[in-house]
Amino acid sequence: MKAVHSLMFMGLAQALHQFSSNGVDYSIVMTQNGVEVPVTLGPALQMNSTGPVATFASRHRRNNVQSTGNWCGMSNTEPPSGTWKSVWGGWVVPQVSLRSDQTNADEPSIAQWVGIDGDGCNSGLIQGGTVSQINSNGAQENYAWWEFIPDALQSVSMTINTGDTIYGNVTMTSTTSGIVEVINANIGLAIVVTINSGSGTLCGASAEWVLEDLSCCGGLVPFAEFPSNSFFDPYSITTAGQQVSPVNADEVYLYQGGQYLCEASYNSATGDIDVVSTA
Predict the structure, then answer these.
(1) Alpha-carbon gap, residue 253 to 100, rounded angstroms
(2) Distances in whole angstroms, Cα of residue 116 to Cα of each of 100, 125, 190, 207, 236
(3) Which candidate in 212, 225, 251, 263 is catalytic?
(4) What domains sit in the chain, N to C, each tagged with a CATH number?
(5) Quick check: 198 and 36 in contact, CB under 8 A?
(6) What was the pLDDT predicted at 53?
(7) What DSSP line would sit under 43-54, residue for residue?
(8) What's the rounded Cα separation, in Å, for the pair 245 and 224?
(9) What are the backbone angles phi and psi of residue 49, rounded to the nearest 5°?
(10) Name one GO biological process term (predicted).
(11) CB 110 within 8 A of CB 143
(12) Over the stretch 119-153, which tens digit does the pLDDT of each residue have?
């Protein structure tokens, strides 16, 4: 995969940007400290988020732990009543680095996001977050994005600096519509993406907080090294209005090349989801 920056273009900036892609209608508003500002978009990027890719791991795990080739985080597939309606969480954009077998030409990356229906609904997924990638010159670049599967991942030109605190909020408004909000708390910048008429069908079956190795071109993007971090203030809300922490959610570990590269767990002392680099 080529670097994200090489795929972006500067479109016509508007206060409200509306467009359609693969049968999905979008409207995007960007605000700076509550005041609307112009929105500039890039095209659909040549990488995508997917559901968890199950993988065989030789090390025994507890029943509430999934081993996957691309996800690290937590997934709550058991709403106490009704289905999931929204999910919220925050994270800090980390300084990523090369693994021992990587070079700048590999352009490795990670994605951090919150979403609904990535785990347990095979007909749709709505999510939003950030991507951090090392480009071919060795510099890190960070991007805000959202996705309504089966449509492609979409990016927006939004200032995201390494070390910034980001919040994600995803709401399912119907089986074919929803709202994605990505907030940069450091500079008061936010995008609100309203999604209508999607070709996918949401179920409200799962709420997720995930650090992911994205996919491209029939395989996984090279997975960057990252410092251990967390999703803070994580919660999800059901259609019955119940706000739930991820204390009983499944832990999801990322396993590649015969070893765990990332493990996640709920920290009962802080209420956060700890995401630990283990390689």
Answers:
(1) 21
(2) 34, 6, 20, 5, 9
(3) 212
(4) 4-47+68-277 (2.60.120.700)
(5) no
(6) 84
(7) EE-S-B--S--B
(8) 29
(9) -85, 150
(10) proteolysis
(11) no
(12) 989 899 999 999 999 999 999 999 999 999 888 89
**Predicted confidence (pLDDT) at residue 13 exceeds the cutoff of 90:** no
Mean pLDDT, residues 272-279 taken together? 96
Residue in the structure block whose two tokens are 């112009």:
38
Among all chains, which residue has been given the structure tokens 């650090």?
A: 211
